[in-house]
From TrEMBL:
This is Beta-Casp domain-containing protein. GO terms for biological process: snRNA 3'-end processing. It comes from Rhizophagus irregularis (strain DAOM 181602 / DAOM 197198 / MUCL 43194). Coiled coil: none annotated. PANTHER family: INTEGRATOR COMPLEX SUBUNIT 9.
Amino acid sequence: MGIRQMMKELVHFFGDSVLKSRTHSQPGSTNIFTGVTADWNVARSLYSIADIQSCIDKVRPVRFGEHLNLYELEVTAYSSGYCLGSANWMIDCGGEKISIVSSSSTVQNIHPLPFDETVLNNADVIILSDLRDKDGARFETILIEIGNCVANTLKNKGNVLFPCTMNGIIFDIIGFLSQHLRAVGLRGIPFYAVSPIAEESLKYSNICGEWMCTERQQKMYLPDNPMHHQDMIEQSLLYYASRADSSLQEKYQEPCVVFAGHPSLRRSAAINFIRKWGNNSNNSIIFTESEYDCEEAMSAFEGLQIKPIYLPIDDQ
């Protein structure tokens, strides 16, 4: 889960169709409901939506633990624990077994099905990639730091922007923040998810029971939502929009917490919110994606008073 949405999001952020369809705004504009200018499109055109669908049509869905026979090989997928549907692989070459372990997570209490260590059983060869020096305790510590930063900003009547992609660990951050703010007496704070794939990702992640941890799988059979963000949507605490335009304006109020792309701050709705909030030091922008450098991202917005906070949270 997430690859198709990420590919579609990239097309929306950097594709020609977006560039031609957006209305232009003046560089100094603080109206978040006006599209960004063409000057911000610093990347070349990527593949199209049709290219994505053509690719997905060729993909065969596989269940965890399902054995696939590919010529003389037997291939089996095991949960990697990193995100919904992410997998490691065991390849049986007729007597010899090769384990392929890539982006994986052993962090507890997050939404994906946990890392299945049986992928390593009786392996003759283990191929490891994307290794990180991380631990679960550090993950929990950063999550609490994020919660405290958000709470302090809101108590000062400021707003919080998370430049992010709408998938993966961001679902856990949204759920954690909702509970944390309620615990510190900040009830009723609206959250906004602004991305071309916000609605699709939020709704789709709520029905992927097969790929969730056991606790959330059990909620699929109860009158309860497995993902906390669905409760927030039903309680009118979380709103989603494809872009920062008039459809969002009808629901918009401050102070608030906004999740918007792109984490590079070179495209999409995040730019609009920085323009609106940039001259107020009570506002904060929190970078949680370790793949993007905070200083480099903010280099395009020198002289602004908005407070940048770098708290990369990586569950790999």
